[in-house]
Amino acid sequence: MQHDYPTPAHGTRVVVSPAKVVLGSGAITELGDYVELYGRKALVVATQQIFDIHGDRVLETLQESGIETAVYTDVRPDPTISNIEDAYELWRMEDCDVIVTLGGGSSIDTGKAVGVLANNSGSIRDFAVDKAGYEGVPNPTPPLIAVNTTAGTGSEATRSIVVTDDEASTKFLIVSQNVVPDVAIEDPELTLSLPQSHTAFTGIDALTHAIEAFVSVKSYSVSDDYARAAIRRIADSFPKAWANGDDVEARTEMMIGQLQAGQAFTNSSVALVHGMARPLGAQLHIPHGLANALILPYVMEFSAMAAPEKYAEIARLFDVASETDADRVAAKKASDAVLELCTDVNLSSYLDEFGEVPDRETYLDIVPKMAQDAVESGSPDNNPRKPTKAEIEDLFVTIYDDALAPDSTRRTSGSS
Ligand SMILES: [Fe+2]
User: Fold this and answer.
1) Alpha carbon separation from 351 to 193, 205, 222, 257, 288 (Å, rounded)
2) 3-state DSSP: the chain helix, strand, coil percent, rounded to 5?
């Protein structure tokens, strides 16, 4: 077996992970015990929708442990700079000392960003990768406890924050080991209330994390192990959790799978799919997972030739290729397996409800800007086949014709 270890010649690697993961049905009831270890007054950060569902249970467990609370519930599905500034203002005014996020990536990222402002000077934009570089947050956040309600972004395990700059219609990234949460509460029962559409979006996001981490030029033995485990679990459990939201076993598998996918990409990287998904999502106002689902199969097809052994292994993890298939043969089956999975969970059909798809001419006008944003994000540099800007533009056009146009193949061939 070939090993790919960090070596003195190539530099060491930092493996990050939340310090503690509390996993299992009922984990939410232990939240107060963990918050108590870190502080006396918690800023609880959530969307109003999630707080309405789970807020009482969170406040109850905090109260039982004698923790005071201030609650910020204005987080938007794609958190904005003003969300972060408002939540930070509440943190400061209320003199809190521990951050508790309730929700998926949006709440967790808002909480991380509040933590950045709490212990560092500057505005949140100053810490973005394009300004401050990687590891651009000098001081660690205050104690941060993430109660995850999706499966998911894996943000509770990562060193990244995605922020929407709504004035510029773009998203920017902050990446630092100083923003990794201290505790992740992973209670699959909290995901039972997820609507089917969100099960689809968050599930494909997790799968994209695992696949991108696995094929990234930054991947290595440790991140590969997380990625393999995540791909296997998600391939098996995603359709089950989507078809029957009350299937606690499938929900548990998805929660573990998305955690491992988060651990995979934060210790490797995401790549071209995420580079393209951020501008596509921002321009079309579609959920992040849906943007990934629209892009992933085409980028896999585009990239497979550059890392056939990796794509072949993905096909084998999906059980659509065997050990006896040559890598180049097996690799070609990986994108088809993902496309089939997207069809099984009816992903393209959600564009009717969630998308604002422009006509082809208007879309073609924004393709150069989206491609430019993708290039500038740096994520395409991690792709096994590094694309030119023109190739990214071509991919965006293919995606429109094949998956976005109302009469496209993918939009007219749902599973139901
Ligand atoms: Fe993602």
Assistant:
1) 21, 16, 36, 25, 12
2) 60, 10, 30
Residue 319 near residue 327 (C-beta atoms within 8 A):
no
Pull the structure tokens for residue 322: 């065997």
Q: Kindly give the distance from the C-alpha atom of residue 275 to the centroid of ligand 1, in angstroms, as a whole number.
A: 10
Distance 162 CA to ligand 1 centre (A): 9
Per-residue pLDDT at 349:
87
Distance 155 CA to ligand 1 centre (A): 9
CA–centroid distance, residue 209 to ligand 1 (Å): 6
Centre of ligand 1 from the C-alpha of residue 76, in Å? 16
Q: What's the 214 CA to ligand 1 centre distance in angstroms?
A: 14
Strand partners, 101: 45, 146
Instruction: Provide the residue type at 20 as one letter.
Output: K
Q: Which domains, from first to last, does the chain contain? A: 20-191 (3.40.50.1970), 196-404 (1.20.1090.10)
Contact present, 75 and 121 (Cβ < 8 Å): no
The Å distance, Cα 202 to ligand 1 centre, comes to 8
Q: Cβ neighbours of residue 321 under 8 Å, at least 6 residues apart?
A: 312, 315, 329, 330, 333, 334
- Encoded tokens for 233: 């679990």
Distance CA 298, CA 365 (A): 21
Residues of the chain falling short of pLDDT 50 = 1-2, 415-416
Q: What is the pLDDT of residues 11-44, one digit of tens each?
A: 788 999 999 999 999 999 999 999 999 999 999 9
154-197 pLDDT per residue, tens: 999 999 999 998 787 778 889 999 999 999 999 999 999 899 99
- Cα–ligand 1 centroid distance for 270 (angstroms): 8
> What pLDDT score does 416 carry?
40
How far is residue 331's CA from residue 353's CA, in Å, rounded to a whole number? 34
User: 33: CA distance to ligand 1 center in Å?
Assistant: 30
* Structure token digits, residue 344: 């099984």
Q: State residue 193's pLDDT score.
A: 85
Scanning 26-101, the segments in alpha helix (DSSP H) are 31-38, 48-64, 81-93
Q: How far is the CA of 60 from the centre of ligand 1 (A)?
A: 31
In the three-class reduction of DSSP (H, G, I as helix; E, B as strand; rest coil), residue 209 is classed as: helix
- What pTM was estimated for this model as a whole? 0.94
